[in-house]
Each structure stands twice: as C-alpha cells, then as structure tokens.
Sequence to fold (236 residues):
Amino acid sequence: MLVGGRRSGLWYHPAPVRRFLIAIDFDGTITQHDTLHLIVDRFGDRSVWDRLTPDVIAGRVSVEEAMQAEFATVRATPDQVLELVRARAGVRAGFVEFIAWARARGHDVRVLSNGFRIVIDDTLTRLGLADLPFDSHDAEFSAVGTRLVWTARGERCALCNRPCKRFDLAAVRGDLPVAYVGDGVSDRCVCGAADVVFARAELADWLRDAGRPFVPFDSFGQVRAHLEQLTKVYPG
Fold:
C-alpha cells in the first residue's frame, strides 16, 4: 500500500525482521471508545477539553495540562468509573486474538498509554490479559473530585517539550524494531521513534497532513496481516 507515493508505514529501508516490539496505545486504539472522554462526559464537564483542543493541537497547551483541567471537574467513585467503562468502552475487533498471535510469534508487546492504570488494569484483566505489561498514568477518583497521578517520564522530550511516551518506549525497546499502533495526540511524538506506524482517527489525519507514512487500520486483524507480510520471509 502506498501513502503519498511511498510504501506506507515504513520509516526504514526494509531489512530482515524476525521480532518487533509492538507498542499499542490504549484509549481509542485497544478500546473502541476513548475511556477518558466517556468518564468526563458522564461525570465531568467535557466542554473544558473541547475549549482546550485547538490549543492542544497547536501545541500551546500540553495534553497533560488539558487533562488536569478537565478531570478537575470529574466527581465519581472508582466503582462508578469502572462500571461505565465496562458498559461503554468496548474493545477493538481482533485485539485479544492479535495478542495471542504476537506472543506465539515471539514479538514483545506493551501498552503505552496516557490514560489511567485503574481502567487499563481492569480492562486487561477482564480480557484475560492481566500479564500484558503497560505504562500509564493513574487517577484517584472520588465523589468530591479527581486527582491525576502522573507517572515519571524523565525530562521533557527534546522534540515535543513534554514528558511523552518516547521515554517509556526508550526504556523497553532494546535493539528491537518498533511497530507502533495509535490514534491520538499523545501518539504523535512517540510514533516518530517507530519503524512501522499503524494509525487511525486523529493520528492518521495528522500523519497524512504531514506527509508521513503510516498504515491505516480499523481492526487488529489488519495490523496482524501487515506485520505478517513484513516478517513472513524471515521466519523466527
């Protein structure tokens, strides 16, 4: 598949690849619906994020600053939040099967999220994937307000000037080529450190506008099919 006249998704000259580190965003990528938006829509004030979105996209306000502002309006117990996510978030088609395939082929798989540990842990556990490693922030929900708990991501990224997912990726990638799967603003910087990028929604629009290669996807079956093409002539 070609995007902008180039082979889509590849940042590098194709070379023998047996194993990838597959890094996957959570909200809107593993889930069908962004759990952060679901939580704010039900228990907070979504207009805060809507007002800040142009500034986030333009880089005048960081994702973290916008999240802090909107979640300051959220009032809900942990049980209420998890009940909502279980009922409404959904899981993208083929995700569980994709993880089984990736592990069977020897790929390393990790979730890199700007979301919350309490939600991700509950979701993965319900899917039978409690042992799937992930890096994320967290939130302390209560009926009187929500406090966000930011994970340590080292110094600000030299490229995006914020503590981004590149730190988490660099800590685990080793010498493996990276396949990154994402959909949103928090995936922009880190996907530039990947060798193969799978993108949908806002991330796909941004990459397309920037003329940067990526592989579009709607299901994890499509991600698997493309990775199989990249690795099939180099069996492990």
Remarks:
- The CA atoms of residues 52 and 110 lie 30 Å apart.
- Residues 1-8 have pLDDT under 50 and may be disordered.
- The chain has one domain: 2-35+91-231.
